[in-house]
Design a protein that fits this description.
The chain is mainly β. It has one domain: Jelly Rolls. The strands form two sheets. Strands 1-10-5-12-3-2 form a six-stranded antiparallel β-sheet. It has a six-stranded antiparallel β-sheet with strand order 7-8-4-11-6-9, with no helix packed on it. The protein is globular.
Length: about 150
Amino acid sequence: MIYTEISNIGHYRGMGEYLDKAFDYLATHSLADVEAGHYEIDGKKVYLNVLEYETIAEEEAFFEAHGKYADIHMAVEGEELVGVSDMARVSVKTFDEGADLYEVEGPVEHYIRLVPGKALVVLPEDAHKLKLMGKNPAPVKKAVIKVFVG
């Protein structure tokens, strides 16, 4: 897991070819005016999803992980909490190989406050529980870059 300013994300170059492409994209593209949708950066290896939703209570949230992709989460508008745990600390409930999606259960080790200007990079060893509200539900516009890491 990496939690940093988007403006500093280039400091993490060298971790992998496709992560470098994602970091380069963030260095040269503003997310401020991107509308909700799917955008290819490098085919299925690096792509951007922009989502709009309302945050939810933790007991309603989906706890997930991926085996072949890293996610770079960034709030464009609003804020949410993201729960993160090492995969060694959770149990796998289901796995959808085609979607590269593990559904997991277990304790959250860390809560990250995702606000505009910050980036949260979760790697295959990082289970993540998304869309968590603070005190009350709130609207969020979020960008997620999916990055193939093998």
